[in-house]
Design goal:
single chain, alpha/beta, six-stranded mixed β-sheet, four-stranded antiparallel β-sheet, binds adenosine-5'-diphosphate
Length: 254
């Protein structure tokens, strides 16, 4: 069966004054996949994401999300996507349950805060305030809030930056769970282990251009087929494995 395209970006260009940050990007995201935009800082990942999210004006090109054209129907696109807020968007003195109820009200969607917090391992923080959460808890909460309007696609911009290894792995599992429930996930990251673990396909973006697009295995096979070999023999474990082995997989932050 042909996979359905849920996002189609074609010849997307974004100029900031004289500077062209996005130089004619084209890619498609299939329904139900985890699609990654990878690249160094300044590559144009966030700009691209924010244009698709209707939060930033494009200079030219076309974007279609779930059958809606960005120029014609930005309001329809907003209804089918879930976007992470900057942390400043969370009123510091409201409890997590109150924040979720408030967002549910804004989206005009019935929502069960306790059930949503439970899915994100935050049940015991239900009555805590956002400012009282650890870094990992804040990230989990911010991903939970992307689901309040029952979106078909969520966008995660560097969701694990600044987290410790346990919190990162716990977030990866949650992202897989969100996808398993049928939501398409578009993620930006500059952590290649994260992309390799999570992404079905990824685009490598550099200086506003896509320089490769494939599954992680496909990209690795392409490189190996050019005769590339790692200089040193690969170790059977890395330092992160040592850290996780010694300190355990459980989250410590509650
Ligand atoms: P990434 O998310 O890959 O780090 P960004 O999309 O944030 O990249 O930025 C791409 C380029 O566009 C960078 O060189 C950045 O400095 C520039 N840029 C981003 N936002 C603006 C803006 N509002 N005004 C001018 N330049 C910007």
């Amino acid at each position: 069966m042909e996979k359905k395209k849920i996002i189609e970006v074609s010849n997307l260009v974004k100029k900031y004054g004289e500077f062209t940050a996005v130089k004619g990007l084209s890619f498609e995201v299939y329904e139900g996949e985890i699609f990654g935009l990878l690249g160094p800082n300044g590559a144009g990942k966030s700009t691209t994401l924010e244009i698709i999210e209707t939060l930033r004006e494009k200079t030219s090109g076309t974007v279609n999300v779930d059958g809606f054209d960005l120029d014609q129907s930005p309001g329809e696109i907003k209804k089918v996507i879930g976007v992470q807020l900057q942390s400043s968007g969370y009123y510091p003195n409201l409890k997590l349950t109150e924040l979720i109820e408030m967002f549910g009200g804004l989206y005009n969607q019935p929502v069960d805060p306790i059930q949503l917090l439970g899915m994100f391992n935050l049940s015991d923080k239900a009555h805590a305030k956002y400012k009282e959460l650890s870094g990992g808890q804040k990230q989990r909460f911010s991903i939970a809030t992307t689901l309040i309007n029952k979106p078909r696609i969520i966008f995660l911009d560097e969701p694990t930056t600044g987290l410790d290894p346990q919190a990162r792995r716990s977030l990866w599992d949650l992202i897989l769970e969100v996808r398993a429930q049928g939501t398409t996930v578009v993620i930006t990251t500059h952590y290649m282990d994260e992309a390799e673990f999570l992404c079905d396909r990824c685009a490598i973006v550099d200086s506003g251009e896509i320089i490769a697009l494939n599954s992680p295995d496909g990209l690795i096979d392409q490189l190996v087929s050019t005769g590339f070999e790692r200089k040193k023999e690969v170790k059977k474990a890395n330092l992160e494995d040592v850290f996780i082995h010694l300190t355990g997989k459980e989250l410590r932050e509650s």
